Amino acid sequence: MIGGLLALLASGLLGISDFLGGAISRKTKLVTVLLVSQIVATLAIIPRMMFEDPTVNAGPALLWGVIGGVSTAIAVSSLFKALAIGTMGVVAPITSLSVIVPVVAGLFQGDRVGWLLALGLVIAIVGTVMASGPEVKSKGVGHGPKPIILAIVSALGFGVANLSVALGSAFNVTTTLVSNSLVVLIIYAVAALVLREIPKASGWSLVGIIAIGLLGIAANLCFALASTTAPLTVVAVLASLYPVVTVLLGWRLLNESIKPVQIFGVISVFVGVSLIAASHQ
Q: Which residues of the chain have pLDDT under 70?
């Protein structure tokens, strides 16, 4: 039960973070958003080393942290760019398919799937896609295939990143998250140097970027802790519901339209989550 709640919390935090990332990247250079938010995230997670010895089972945790860091850097940069140039209601559902990677891995690890859980998983995944309004052929997309391609890349990246965090956290949560965050920071810093971009942000944009970093690392921590207390398949699905939050914020704050299929999708998501929760009582 606690694992499920943590996974849902991770989903909510990530949904807000992604919305802010996409919205701010429409006005601020992507490198600035990525680098500054990651500096904040790294500074926020490092103090955790005072509460958990990072040297315990450090080897495998470090390995998965590095793999997850590379995947996260690719996933987040692709997602923010896709959200900045495309329609959130189309980009978000594609990235939510990242859940397939850890779910398949969880099944291979022996996670048991009863009929109630299986039904909940299917409804939640389908509902998440529908809630984001995947009208790829409609005029609402209007940006060609680039946002779609970036969203697919992001989905694969997040899938590998989430799996890596879950596997590394089984050995040491702190080492996994700190190494993950440092690798992402290094990649973004190198990108800024190569592109010769000097991060510049002020006012509400800076506040938003700081929020992205804090929300992102909080989501990662919740996901990592959830993966140590609940089956990976369940945690992965519950944590993948963030597109619902992103789409609702886009509709409310950016005036992006929500169609009937999206409303039905939101309802389906809640039904799926209820079934998943009921299967573990």
A: 1, 106-107, 111-113, 131-144, 257-258, 277-281
Distances (CA, A) of 96 to 157, 213, 244, 269: 11, 20, 10, 12
Q: Is 14 helix (H, G, I), strand (E, B) or coil?
A: helix
Q: Residue 230 gets which letter from DSSP? A: S
Enumerate residues 6+ apart whose C-beta is below 8 A from 252: none
Interatomic CA distance for residues 75 and 154, integer angstroms: 4
Instruction: List pLDDT tens digits, range 16-66.
Output: 998 999 889 888 889 999 999 999 999 999 998 888 888 888 899 999 999
Are 278 and 140 in contact by the 8 Å Cβ rule? The answer is no
Helix extents (H) in the chain? 2-24, 30-45, 58-85, 88-96, 100-108, 115-131, 146-169, 173-195, 203-227, 232-239, 242-254, 260-278
Residues 6+ apart with CB under 8 A from 170: 227, 228
Residue 264, classed as helix, strand or coil, is helix
Letter for the amino acid at 138? S
pLDDT in tens, 94-117: 787 787 787 777 667 776 667 787
Tell me the C-alpha distance between 48 and 270, whole Å: 33
